[in-house]
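Incident log, support desk, overnight shift.

02:14 A customer reports that sequence design results differ from what the structure should imply. Their input is reproduced verbatim below. On-call engineer (initials T.W.) acknowledged and began investigating.
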């Protein structure tokens, strides 16, 4: 439907403007009958039509149904989307939970198998050369005898190590390093050299070099680290519980013995990276291949795509109506429209739903790739689907906002948001100052201040009243000056942020809430836009909103909000 145009002809027009203007009998008097009756009458009709369009645009779905009799398909589509998106997320969460559990349990198994004397939660380290050699020999021998000692079913991955071997034993060291603490002298070439040997499992007994690891000599005094790299295969058969084909895993395991500090303590850790792929020729007795999950993912993607198109169309209609409203005020009333009133035409809920739909569509296709074993991006898929579901459920507030008693949360947040942002910017400056100060001063003496991220986590916990005694108690008394500073630091931070900053933050929210409640008792200040709309006294059920254009429209046109 073409929007009406409003022609602006000012009184001070030039002779050229009058010549080009569509006015009859130029040079003579204007027809008084036309000026007195037809032109004002037409302008009043256009103004009333614009009011009616604006009123219909800002109606709730129920009022729109009464106004034009069109079914609220978009509302029903959003409710359907909430259900199927939530079901999709729950199914993915159950599957992802089994994947994460399988990875974590295998990582714990590898630590117990390949790290000598490993205990859960205890840091692994050695302090003598004999212990370091014994840990290396233990890991290699456990790898060689894995089929005989492991409770799990693992398979070696051959040909991925040094010279086509299965396991690589490497040491990295400085090219030249001479340290003489007696004379306080040292001579170090910072270039790093790497020396490796390859080993093969006992299934290949005749492979050369299988016993060379015992003759592997470490250059202790210029050693940076020792690494043992190998890969193992396994199959996660517990997915059968969820009627899924089992996944085939390849674990890339790296044992690191870190000596870069040269402090006499070599830290030992095990890193495990898992990759997932489709198993070859899967066969599960009594199991018929089901495409129900793929069908659900395609359905979710289709519904979200339809929702995205409808919300995008609504935003486009709002922009067109905004332009028409601005032109009317400019040409007919000679007034400009503020940016605040212009933004009323851009519904933020539609933008939120569009972002949610985009995340869901992308996440659904990634999920299809995971289920077909072509992708293994579980984390990315989880982030997209989780964020989209969060936004979908937040969008439920959109429907509750049509009821005044349920709209108090949104109205309060909207009123308090500008002041809260300004307040947070000021508080963040103080917070960052405490973070940097705590990290540089207390970092060497307290585990919770070793990095900026842990400092921020510790201070945020203190604001909420968590771990206060533990934070005070774990401070090392390495020096009186640092200990006194730590006490002043913690007491001032807790007092400032709990008793002042946090209280003021709550007061901002409470003040906004009190202001909203006071406005309900008084006459609310109405903008020019809503004042203009209020002059339209037609009710939704009056039948005046049913125009001739309503009889012929497309499917998307009939899907009103």
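02:41 Re-run completed on a clean worker. Output:
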């Amino acid at each position: 439907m073409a929007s009406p145009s409003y022609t602006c002809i000012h009184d001070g027009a030039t002779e050229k403007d009058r010549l080009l203007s569509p006015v009859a009998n130029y040079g003579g008097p204007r027809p008084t009958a036309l000026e007195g009756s037809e032109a004002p009458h037409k302008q009043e009709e256009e103004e009333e039509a614009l009011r009616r369009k604006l009123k219909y645009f800002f109606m709730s779905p129920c009022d729109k149904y009464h106004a034009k009799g069109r079914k609220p398909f978009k509302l029903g589509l959003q409710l359907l989307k909430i259900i199927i998106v939530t079901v999709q997320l729950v199914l993915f969460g159950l599957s992802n939970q089994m994947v994460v559990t399988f990875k974590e349990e295998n990582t714990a198994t590898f630590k117990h198998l390949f790290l000598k004397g490993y205990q859960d939660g205890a840091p692994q380290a050695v302090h003598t050369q004999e212990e370091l050699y014994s840990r290396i020999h233990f890991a290699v021998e456990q790898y060689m005898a894995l089929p005989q000692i492991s409770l799990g079913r693992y398979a070696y991955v051959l040909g991925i190590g040094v010279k086509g071997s299965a396991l690589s034993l490497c040491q990295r060291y400085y090219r030249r390093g001479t340290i003489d603490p007696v004379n306080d002298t040292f001579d170090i070439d910072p270039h790093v050299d790497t020396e490796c040997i390859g080993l093969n499992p006992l299934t290949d007994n005749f492979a050369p070099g299988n016993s060379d690891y015992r003759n592997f000599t470490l250059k202790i005094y210029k050693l940076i680290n020792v690494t043992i790299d190998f890969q193992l295969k396994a199959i996660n058969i517990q997915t059968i519980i969820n009627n899924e084909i089992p996944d085939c895993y390849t674990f890339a395991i790296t044992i690191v013995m870190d000596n870069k500090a040269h402090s006499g303590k070599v830290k030992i850790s095990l890193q495990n990276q898992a990759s997932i792929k489709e198993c070859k020729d899967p066969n599960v007795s009594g199991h018929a291949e089901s495409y129900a999950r793929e069908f659900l993912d395609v359905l979710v993607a289709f519904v979200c795509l339809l929702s995205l198109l409808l919300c995008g169309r609504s935003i486009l209609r709002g922009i067109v109506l905004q332009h028409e409203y601005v032109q009317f005020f400019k040409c007919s009333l000679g007034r400009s429209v503020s940016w605040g009133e212009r933004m009323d035409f851009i519904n933020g809920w539609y933008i939120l739903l569009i972002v949610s739909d985009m995340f869901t569509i992308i996440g659904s296709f990634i999920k299809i790739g995971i289920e077909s074993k072509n992708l293994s991006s579980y984390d990315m898929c989880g982030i997209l689907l989780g964020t989209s579901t969060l936004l979908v459920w937040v969008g439920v507030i959109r429907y509750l906002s049509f009821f005044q008693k349920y709209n108090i949360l949104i109205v309060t947040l909207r009123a308090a948001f500008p002041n809260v942002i300004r307040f947070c910017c000021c508080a963040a400056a103080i917070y960052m100052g405490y973070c940097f100060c705590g990290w540089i001063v207390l970092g060497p003496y307290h585990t919770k201040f070793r990095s900026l991220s842990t400092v921020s986590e510790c201070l945020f916990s203190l604001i909420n009243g968590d771990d206060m005694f533990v934070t005070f108690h774990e401070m090392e008394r390495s020096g009186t000056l640092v200990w006194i500073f730590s006490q002043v630091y913690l007491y001032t931070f807790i007092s400032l942020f709990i008793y002042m900053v946090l209280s003021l933050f709550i007061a901002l929210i409470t003040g906004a809430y009190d202001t909203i409640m006071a406005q309900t008792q008084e006459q609310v200040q109405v903008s020019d836009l809503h004042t203009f709309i209020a002059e339209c006294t037609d009710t939704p059920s009056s039948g005046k909103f049913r125009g001739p254009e309503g009889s012929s429209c497309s499917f998307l046109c009939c899907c009103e909000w």
